[in-house]
Amino acid sequence: MFKRAKQSRVFQDVVDQIQEAILTKKLAPGTRLPAERDLKEMFNTSRGTLREALRVLEQKGLIEIKLGVAGGAIVKQIDTDPLMESLALLIQSGEVSLEHLSEFRIKIEGSLVELATERATPKDIEELEQMQARARHCYDIQDWESFLKTDEAMHTYIGTMTRNPVFQFVQKSIHDNIHRYYQDFLPMNRERTLENLQDFDKIIAAMKSKNGAVASAIITDHVQRFHDKMTGKQP
What we know:
Elements: H1 10-23, H2 36-43, H3 47-59, E1 63-66, E2 72-75, H4 81-92, H5 98-119, H6 122-140, H7 144-161, H8 165-175, H9 179-185, H10 190-208, H11 212-230
Antiparallel strand pairs: 1-2
Helix pairs in contact: 1-3, 4-8, 5-7, 5-11, 6-7, 6-10, 7-8, 10-11
């Protein structure tokens, strides 16, 4: 499967060959890579170079290195966790501003909701309604922290409803990390949570009637309105 690495770029060639084998499914998830001594011979490289290459592949989320007698380098199922963590750190560092997030959401979230409406199943709508009921309970007992978490879960679930992994990734990444902006710029209170609830009542009603254009317009207005509140353009 593997061939001797090009000596002018040994390290990168080892990474590229193993990565290619994983991405083209020649190495399926759960497959254990050959033993270190065998890989050294295949690539004609040193132990240090090989281990450095395996560490890079592990950081990329392509393999998992297990220690012990039964250990070794094992191919992982490719997922979005490393990307989500990188985006989360970018948001948490402040490099992504409130303005950046709002601008992105205003441009994208309406289209995302329209697609979710088109593809929504009765079970999807039922799940959203159950989340909305939990949000209303949080409003009734004035548990603003739990209300925000439920609201974030609803936005994330709309991404799931698109059946598009890219939208799912983006929506989850943003709404898992948007919490701090509300804490800093718009602490929840009874009036704001009621407004949020009313918006989602309208969004769910539009989705139930398969009116994606209306659902899109409502959520776009929702994002813009709450952005204006956070930036002081609206009370």
